[in-house]
Amino acid sequence: MTDDLTPATGNGLAASDDGRRTFIKQASGLLGLALAPPLVGQAERLTAMAKKVEGVSEMRLKVNGALRTIKAEPRVSLLDALREHLDLTGSKKGCDHGQCGACTVLVDGRRVNSCLTLAVMAQGKEIKTVEGLAKGEELHPLQQAFLDHDGFQCGYCTPGQLMSGVACLKEGHAKTDGDVREWMSGNLCRCGAYPNIVAAIREVEKSGFKG
Amino acid sequence: MNNFSYLSTTTAKDATAAVTGTKGAAFIAGGTTVLDLMKLNVENHSELVDINLVPFKGIEQTADGLRIGALERMSDVGEHPLVVQNYPVISQSLLQAASPQLRNMASIGGNLLQRTRCGYFRDVAFPCNKRNPGSGCPAQEGENRNLAILGGSKACIATHPGDLGVALAALDAVLLLENAKGKQRRVPLVDFHVVPGNTPQRETVLEPGELIVSVTVPAAAHARKSMYLKVRDRASYAFALASAAVGLDVQGGQIRTARVALGGVGTKPWRSVAAEKILTGAPATEATFRAAAAAAVKDAQPREQNRFKVELAQNTLVRALLELSAA
Asked: What is the pTM of this model?
């Protein structure tokens, strides 16, 4: 995958403005509808994807509340976009095949494997990474619980565990230890900190925090 | 992964036209299979056509059953109250598959099209008739512990890896397909996947550029009383060594209707009509279930490392039927 780490240079937008105008005309009915406030994201997505994307092009990603622009090829995963283009190296590359969960982030509030998500397809969506969990110096309750319960050893899987744990709490899948083990099974920890991870998530659940 | 172009489409017409009109193009929905296989160089597409904005959505009760849009996500279908209550085997098959993250991504249509986990298929250093027709099948005499005992051929014994397809095979599900000309057709799930024979590269009856629009499942007493039992090497997040999708309508101790399909042991979701024939009209006892299980694996052709699956599949099926009839 090293050839995926395209330098952020290139000729930018590949398609001509003509194609874009034509699309906007054709889609104007749809866009008019979509501009109602709850659907603005959808409208942004439609305009962002109005053309075939080839080679390096500009992509806009909303990460942890901030709109960021990168130049990348369509094959660049969301994980590589975060780590290599936006210097958000919290999300980790473990297996790069959706098997370990170290790359877990939230997209529109749902946990996904960012290694199997294309950055180009994540445009117009709300992306939340481990860097967006704490509020300034104040840790997220699950981050604090991981510290209190020793929920990690080497720490490599921890950002993914945290993002998955936050989603697990929000989904209501953390009501028993067994639930947590089942619904956190997409996050592997080769140090074997599982009992402490379960304890940390359970403590936050019992505190009434819903994520 | 090779470089490719990307195109987002909002209609089935545009999507199918793009895929049929561009050499090497493929659809992408959740991306969990296609990107995984492209990273392994098992698939090398020149263009990915995003169908996520195509309106193949909805999980709804129809006049005669359940309709699921092909672009609904595994997690949403698995936890939908309608599915949980009236089609528990579908819910259970989905929620025992993959991981929560993958289930949030993977679409129902894509799930049915996921490709085998056979190690030779996934490693381009090896020959594989499915990946490179005519190159050979090292699995026949090689690492075949996880591979199929039913429906294999000399060319291929790769297991269908999915769970949902097994549940849908049991419940007489029908797929609605749409091709590049906008023409729609209905194909029963059991006829959708094909056994490898001499052409293991062909896994379904889907034509090039054709899309899965939706899945419909008829309502039935054996659908309401149904379950999925999955046996695997670890308790969660693993492919099935053997699984059973079963549905029973039992009245006064007698089985009125039964549905049986096996997973993890076949080259496609393995509906067993032979087992259903033994169950139908018979008393709901372990002896009946044992006889049905024996019939289900009668044609098994195990290899050196997967002989255990013949017994495991039977025990899985018997346990599922016992648990379901006791429930």
From this structure: 0.91
